[in-house]
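Q: How would the structure tokens look for this protein?
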Amino acid sequence: MQWVGLPLTAFLCPVIICAIQRGVIYDDPYIELRYGEHLAEGMGWSFNPGLPTNNAVTSPLYVLLIAAGKFLGASVDVWSTCIYCAAWGLGGIVLARILFFDGRLTGGWLACGLYSIAPLLGNVRGMETSLYLLLILSAIWAFQYERWLVVGCLLGLLALARLDGVLLAGVLIAWLAVRRSRSALTVLGPFVAITATWAAVSWAITGSPIPSTLAAKIAQRDSGWWGSQFSFLEGLTTNGVVGLEGHRDMGTGITSILLPILAGIALLILPVFGTVVAFRRSESALPMLAIVAAIVVLEYGVGLRMPSSYTWHYGPWTLWVVAGGAIGLEEAARRGHRVVGTVGTALAVALSLATIQLGPPPDRSHYREVAEWIDRDTASPHPTVAAVEIGAIGYYSHADMVDYLGLLDSRANATVRHGNFTWWMSTKPDYWVTTGKFIDAATLGLPEFQREYTSAAIIGPFTIYRRSLSSSSSTSPG
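A: Here is the predicted structure in token form.
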């Protein structure tokens, strides 16, 4: 059953979800796709080839894997989907195995099934999330079997999968140093070797071992346009449990966010109950997942106070909710509360299936058309284009993107921090792509903008403004 049933349970839904989704939901995955494609094509670690920008890569490991596939001749889109789906399915299997280790046979099967339909994992396809969570689960598996060299290597890769991994690894190594100092040294060796090597490489090719995205997100937080500074905590029941971006109607038919919030709160009862029981029984898997989730929530929700719109940062929290919920359901059944177990399972499955997105929302569904229109309209081999979201337009066009939210150019952070989103005008790009809403609304009324830009095309919710020929020649950003 385990050799056949677990892979079937773990992979069936992820494969179906990835196959029927009509495109990637978020724009950010295209940033990593473009970096990986350029790296494989010999253009270096760059988003705009030949132009200096900051390093907007949040997952070096994911970009390296994408570049490897492209170098071997694979389509970047298809290859990234294969990586994501493979890591998602393997994560479900490893999750079941670490719960089996604690004697949680029913809980392991339930966790594997719920993980395979977790809406957050479906909705952030294209990001490094499934790989990041697989490495967390694999490190716990190696820890359970005391394979310390493997733990060290996995923690090193975790740090390359996302910078948060350094913090998670540091906590585990510190705990080992107190309890088992010799084991801590064995873990520390490969971890330091991997992270130090990449830090040196990153410093050499980008000028910093830390991606520019962190400073950009903090500037966005300070602007106040993405909610309160504790919006990450407010999104724990929406983004973190049911995988919905809290400030959007993503086209699921749930027009009010109240239902997901209430359902998320109800579902949190089970993982809390399961975690308490697991701690009391001195189990290893679920308590470690709870600690990982707590660290990430404290890091992003209390320390950095990130905007909740970066939904993939909730991944470790979602992982704990899935595992803890499965154990909670198992415990409810063991104690004779079969109705609670049945209703809880049905609610979790129904809510997951209802909130998995099958296509990008309207304000992201026309980026490819916009990119192709610009390529046809321009006389330049690499026109400069300013936009709030730079990923898909940059990936599908030959444009050099002007990012005024600070991911590619930290010079924008000073104005973003004060709620001013007109920095892009100082670079005089050839085109500006906007919905005319949210942070861009004020720009439309500026005399300088009205003097230099005219409407050239409307595609879906987007208006493409072209810089007037009478204006001075455009300059490239950076």
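The first strand starts at residue 384 and ends at 387.

The beta strands are 384-387, 400-403, 431-434, 453-459, 462-467.

Upvote if useful.
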